[in-house]
Design goal:
This protein has one domain: Jelly Rolls. Helix content is 15%, strand content 46%. The strands form 2 sheets. Strands 1-8-3-6 form a 4-stranded antiparallel β-sheet, with no helix packed on it. The protein has a 4-stranded antiparallel β-sheet with strand order 2-7-4-5, with no helix packed on it. A hairpin with a 4-residue loop joins β4 and β5. The termini are far apart. About 8% of the residues have low confidence.
């Protein structure tokens, strides 16, 4: 019986770490197609999507020049983040840590533009949230 206690403790620890890893993951919050010229797109989020600790934007199909974004929380507070970076297809912006305890997002506005290239595919940007 005494030999089983360390084994049971080890199994409980492994199971709890596994459950934490599964719940802490990136969630797709939607995608937008980016047109030529500077534009603003808005992702509207519902509280059922939950709280997020971090966000990032990923790019597919073509390059995107990110200018800034504005994060509005359910409690009405707003964060403005300057990005000023060109992200290639397959890349992402830096991870943006969300401040405070009340991190339920209401909306995220993004200002960006497609970068002209030989490839005529319109870039697609996806917003991700990390719980």
């Amino acid at each position: 019986m005494i030999k089983r206690i360390p084994l049971m403790t080890f199994l409980a620890l492994v199971l709890s770490v596994g459950a934490t890893t599964v719940s802490a993951q990136w969630k797709d919050l939607g995608s937008r197609e980016v047109k030529q010229g500077v534009e603003e797109d808005t992702w509207r989020l519902n509280s059922f999507q939950g709280q997020f600790r971090k966000i990032k934007l990923t790019v597919t199909h073509n390059k995107v020049k990110f200018l800034r974004l504005e994060i509005e929380y359910k409690n009405g507070e707003t964060d403005r983040v300057e990005i000023k970076k060109i992200v290639n297809a397959g890349g992402s912006t830096r991870v943006i840590d969300l401040r405070g305890d009340d991190r339920y997002l209401s909306r995220v506005n993004v200002w960006y533009e497609a970068v002209k290239s030989k490839n005529d595919d319109r870039p697609r940007v996806t917003l991700w949230g990390f719980k």
